[in-house]
TrEMBL record:
It comes from the Bacteria. Catalyzes the reversible adenylation of nicotinate mononucleotide (NaMN) to nicotinic acid adenine dinucleotide (NaAD). Keywords: ATP-binding, NAD, Nucleotide-binding, Nucleotidyltransferase, Pyridine nucleotide biosynthesis, Transferase. Belongs to the NadD family. This is Probable nicotinate-nucleotide adenylyltransferase. Residues 4-183 form the Cytidyltransferase-like domain. It catalyses: nicotinate beta-D-ribonucleotide + ATP + H(+) = deamido-NAD(+) + diphosphate. GO terms for molecular function: nicotinate-nucleotide adenylyltransferase activity. It comes from Marinobacter lacisalsi. Its EC number is 2.7.7.18. Pathway: Cofactor biosynthesis; NAD(+) biosynthesis; deamido-NAD(+) from nicotinate D-ribonucleotide: step 1/1. The keyword Protease does not apply. InterPro entries: Cyt_trans-like, NadD/NMNAT, Rossmann-like_a/b/a_fold. CDD domains: NMNAT (cd02165).
Length: 214
């Protein structure tokens, strides 16, 4: 099964990397594709450029063969629609290979507002990662989708190429990219929140530094 784990990764942190490893182990897959999305230039606070985010991700997975970086959404530019990405993956992999996208309950709760959302279950399974303090609204479209598409075992999920939703609640580290950026803006340490190689590169490039840190 091919697992796609998307996000802004602005920057990648140990919360992302730990959960990716937990998912690989629990879902018994050989690798997971970390897929950074394009961010429009008008997004708030000083963020990393596409190139910086990609380079930091590559550094973060250097010693972890199961974690692979897939920069296709960055290369494509513009809005990163999951349906487009999955169609492209499907063309490469053919119709029969199981593909799954990883989504937190927070992201899934607004799933029915995504571009071409109805196509997505035809293209891939969804691995729904339970996040604390994030429940699906009773009676909402995502809640109904989960009830209709729920698959109880990983084995059943892998038996079909797409269309299932599998819920999982891996342990999560209390780290966010926002928290990492805030610390950098304030000139504080981010050690042990991101891999050492990422700390070093952020410092070298002077990324995410506020006025005081520049
Ligand atoms: P930001 O703080 O900028 O909103 P973020 O840290 O939430 O960023 P994203 O790149 O937006 O990170 O998230 C990518 C994916 O990683 C999302 O599915 C999100 O739910 C998940 N994620 C973010 N932080 C963690 C964490 N600490 N543990 C597990 N998963 C996480």
């Amino acid at each position: 099964m091919h697992l796609v784990y998307g996000g802004t990764f602005d920057p990648v942190h140990n919360g992302h990397l730990r959960v990716a490893i937990e998912l690989m182990e629990r879902l018994e897959v050989d690798c997971i594709h970390l897929m950074p999305c394009h961010i429009p230039p008008h997004r708030g606070a000083p963020g990393g450029s596409s190139g910086d985010r990609l380079d930091l991700l590559n550094l973060s997975v250097a010693d972890e063969p199961g974690l692979r970086v897939d920069g296709r959404e960055l290369m494509r530019g513009g809005s990163s629609y999951t349906a487009d990405t999955l169609r492209q993956l499907r063309q490469e992999l053919g119709p029969d290979k199981p593909v799954a996208i990883v989504l937190g309950t927070d992201a899934f709760s607004s799933f029915d507002r995504w571009e071409e959302w109805e196509q997505i279950p035809e293209l891939a399974h969804i691995i729904l990662v339970r996040r604390p303090q994030s429940e699906l609204a009773p009676g909402s479209v995502p809640e109904r989708l989960l009830a209709e598409h729920r698959v109880e075992s990983v084995r059943d999920l892998k038996a079909t190429p797409a269309g299932g939703i599998y819920e999982i609640a891996p342990p999560m580290l209390d780290i966010s990219a926002t928290g990492v950026r805030e610390r950098l803006e304030q000139g504080r340490s981010i050690r042990f929140l991101v891999p050492d190689a990422v700390v070093t590169e952020i410092k070298k490039r002077g990324l995410y530094a506020g006025e005081s840190g520049r």
